[in-house]
Amino acid sequence: MDYKGQKLAEQIFQGIILVSAVIGFIYGLSIQQFGWTVYIMLGGFTVSCLLTLPPWPMYRKNPLSWQPAVPETSGENRDKPQESQKKKKHK
């Protein structure tokens, strides 16, 4: 999932939660049953999770370009620059 996909998923998630909260509140208020408000909110939460948690293709339209891999050197060559940097810091 790329950054734009994350933003889209967050907007969809918040929109569904908001709409289900409003619908649940109005319906629960009209029939005087708070339980229905909770059920509708849980249904909205479930739908929003199903739409936003899996990495659907609509969230992967703008892939990131990564830097090329740096070739790995042997362990001996890697240790020597670190030792010289430590000496420079102490001087």
Provide key terms for this protein.
91 residues, mainly alpha, rod-shaped
Question: Any overview of this molecule?
Answer:
The mean pLDDT is 84. Helices cover 70% and strands 0% of the residues. With 91 residues, the chain is an all-alpha fold. It is rod-shaped and about 70 Å long.
Topology:
Blueprint: H1 3-31, H2 34-52, H3 75-90
Helix pairs in contact: 1-2
Organism: Cirrhinus molitorella (mud carp)
Function: Component of the signal peptidase complex (SPC) which catalyzes the cleavage of N-terminal signal sequences from nascent proteins as they are translocated into the lumen of the endoplasmic reticulum. Dispensable for SPC enzymatic activity.
Family: Belongs to the SPCS1 family.
Quick gist of this model?
By secondary structure, the protein is mainly α. It has helices spanning 3-31, 34-52, 75-90. The radius of gyration is 26 Å and the shape is rod-shaped.
Question: Mean pLDDT, rounded to whole units?
Answer: 84
Tell me the series of helices and strands, N- to C-terminal: HHH
Which structural class should the secondary elements be placed in? mainly alpha
Biggest β-sheet, characterized?
Answer: none
- Discrete helix count: 3
Find the count of extended strands (DSSP E, 2+ residues): 0
The radius of gyration computed from the alpha-carbon positions, rounded to a whole number of angstroms, is 26 Å
Instruction: Tell the overall outline.
Output: rod-shaped
